[in-house]
Backbone:
């Protein structure tokens, strides 16, 4: 597997004398298998120089695939400047996370509206197919790809590529779930452990490391990793090589050199299995070869990434019924901002009618709490399951028994009551 970096900067392109060695273009990585399958990961401004390589008169028709981690500007701004998309006869498949409100195609088209750009997405002359992804696995020719959600401020996928006996993991942008781990300390548990399993035994890990642990204290919630976090997880996951990427736009080449020196010194002090670390540099080319390793700990989803696991919220309405008008307004605004359709109801009868007419994916309701025989209030738990089910008589009987037991527990009575 051959890997070449075309953009390694994060947030905003930073050309200039201070970024000559590591580069100023934003995220873009080219991957080719031994068979010749072409996969491009992210289309930041680095996609422009990559595209120029295909724009020569001698270039043959191009068949390629583009994996978009997420649709923040620094990962898609190069798409309108990627010349191979304008060449008739080329074929491209573009993959990215399925959004709540709009398809990947619609989101990418948004940055090419006339308000922002002189031409539209429809003026691409290549044959282009767009694929909305969720967590899961899929295959591109000879490459097996696993997609996993990352911890970022927008829906973001990390990608694990396995081909020619080698494994490459691309993880940008991702924030530690634990603030302690962000400093390189503490036990790896929960979602951070799942992330470690996703990157396990990678021959090359390309990972966001925009901040140091000290810098992170003022950047919590911005959706990016620290060098200390990546080193800790990579050692735990038995990664072979780390390419730090998504370099902070305020960090020049000399500052990156110092960070890498510090990372290598930290690894030397702590001992353990050899781990090569470096800062990804624009134009750098690597051969990723297979290593002998036990891959049994790798956690890859066993369902298809392009097959929806459940209906997206946007495909259904959300029912909302709260007594507090201020809270209702706040929740409504927040959900509409995500593109969700909101339906309000005043009481449970209204909710039942709406549910029977168009089953929602989510119902949020508040009503007078249940009371037991002495008039005391108890908390109310309301579950609304709108998925169609076929229940046999035994299933129905078990549900009724469960309801009766709940009523008995609440009333403290020995005589079974009919549940509702």
Residues:
């Amino acid at each position: 597997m051959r890997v070449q970096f075309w953009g390694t900067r994060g947030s905003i392109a930073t050309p200039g004398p201070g970024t000559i060695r590591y580069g100023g273009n934003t995220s873009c990585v080219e991957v080719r298998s031994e068979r010749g399958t072409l996969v491009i990961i992210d289309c930041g401004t680095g996609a422009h120089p990559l595209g120029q390589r295909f724009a020569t008169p001698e270039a043959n028709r191009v068949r390629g695939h583009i994996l978009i981690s997420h649709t923040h500007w620094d990962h898609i701004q190069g798409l309108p400047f990627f010349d191979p998309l304008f060449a008739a006869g080329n074929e491209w498949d573009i993959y990215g996370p399925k959004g709540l409100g709009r398809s990947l195609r619609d989101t990418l088209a948004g940055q090419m509206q006339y308000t922002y750009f002189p031409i539209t997405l429809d003026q691409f002359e290549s044959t282009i197919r767009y694929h909305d992804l969720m967590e899961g696995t899929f295959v591109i020719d000879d490459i097996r790809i696993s997609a996993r959600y990352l911890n970022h401020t927008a829906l973001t996928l990390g990608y694990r590529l396995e081909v020619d006996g080698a494994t490459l993991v691309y993880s940008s942008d991702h924030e530690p779930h634990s603030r302690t781990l962000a400093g390189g300390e503490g036990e790896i548990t929960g979602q951070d452990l799942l992330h470690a399993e996703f990157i396990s035994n990678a021959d090359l890990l390309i990972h966001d490391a925009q901040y140091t642990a000290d810098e992170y204290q003022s950047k919590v919630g911005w959706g990016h990793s620290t060098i200390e976090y990546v080193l800790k997880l990579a050692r735990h996951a038995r990664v072979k090589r780390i390419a730090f990427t998504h370099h902070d736009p305020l960090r020049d080449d000399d500052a990156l050199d110092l960070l890498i020196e510090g990372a290598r010194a930290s690894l030397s002090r702590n001992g353990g299995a050899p781990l090569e670390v470096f800062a990804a540099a624009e134009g750098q080319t690597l051969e990723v070869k297979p290593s002998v390793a036990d891959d049994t700990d790798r956690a890859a989803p066993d369902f298809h990434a392009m097959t929806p696991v459940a209906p997206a919220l946007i495909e259904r309405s959300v029912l909302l019924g709260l007594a507090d008008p201020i809270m209702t307004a706040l929740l409504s605004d927040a959900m509409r901002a995500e593109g969700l359709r909101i339906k309000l109801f005043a009481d449970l009868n209204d909710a039942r009618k709406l549910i029977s007419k168009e089953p929602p994916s989510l119902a949020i309701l508040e009503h007078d709490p249940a009371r037991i025989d002495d008039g005391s209030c108890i908390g109310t738990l309301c579950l609304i399951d709108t998925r169609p089910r076929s229940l046999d008589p035994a299933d129905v009987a078990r549900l009724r028994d469960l309801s009766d037991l709940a009523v008995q527990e609440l009333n403290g009575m020995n005589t079974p009551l009919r549940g509702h």
Observations:
- The radius of gyration is 26 Å.
